[in-house]
Design brief:
Blueprint (H helix, E strand, L loop, with lengths): L4 H6 L36 H9 L18 H12 L2 E4 L6 E5 L6 H11 L3 E2 L9 E3 L4 E4 L4 E5 L8 E3 L15
Antiparallel strand pairs: 1-2, 3-7, 4-5, 5-6, 6-7
Length: 179
């Protein structure tokens, strides 16, 4: 019997995915988050767009390949950070909590960038997710434990692939211990 899309979207994902409950995205003082996006987001991302996507949205995304926009500093800064530290951490644009660290799991920066470019959004794998702060809801929506809409889990032949909006992970760390 064929698997219907409706049933596929309701299916929970297996480990290491940490499933979340819909109540994470309940209405709070700033949309789905208790706090607005940070004032000084990284890479020059648009703060108004970040607020709309992170806090007042459940389905839409920034434009495909926004992270490649020449007006943003993402490409130069991310490459420099990876060359300096071996990986870079992506922080919640609302709370500054660490959500993803890439590249990891044997991927190089160029492989991370190539996969992200091919899919249109920064694309992370299971090893690169900080499960203390990231949850996947039924249907694949990826959110922070604080209610920030991040993107979606769109599995492919390699496994789970978290297709994430750059504006959702452009925060600054909440303290210098997590950089």
């Amino acid at each position: 019997m064929p698997i219907s899309l409706k049933n596929l979207l309701r299916k929970p994902y297996g480990p290491p995915v940490v499933m979340g409950k819909e109540k994470i995205m309940s209405k709070k003082s700033n949309g789905t988050s208790a706090v607005p996006v940070q004032e000084n987001l990284r890479w020059g991302v648009d703060r108004d767009m970040a607020d709309r996507i992170c806090n007042h949205n459940r389905h839409f995304a920034e434009l495909s390949r926004y992270f490649l926009d020449p007006n943003l500093t993402f490409l130069a800064e991310s490459r420099a950070e990876v060359e300096r530290n071996g990986a870079m951490t992506f922080y919640d644009s609302n709370t500054g909590k660490p959500l993803f660290t890439a590249p990891k799991g044997g991927r190089t920066y160029d492989e991370f960038l190539s996969e992200s470019t091919a899919h249109g959004w920064p694309s992370f794998r299971d090893d690169e997710v900080d499960w203390r702060y990231v949850r996947v809801l039924r249907g694949g929506e990826c959110v922070s434990v604080d209610g920030t809409h991040l993107g979606h889990n769109l599995p492919d032949k390699k496994g789970n692939r978290y297709c994430i909006n750059l504006v959702s992970v452009a925060g600054r760390p909440i303290n210098n211990d997590e950089t």
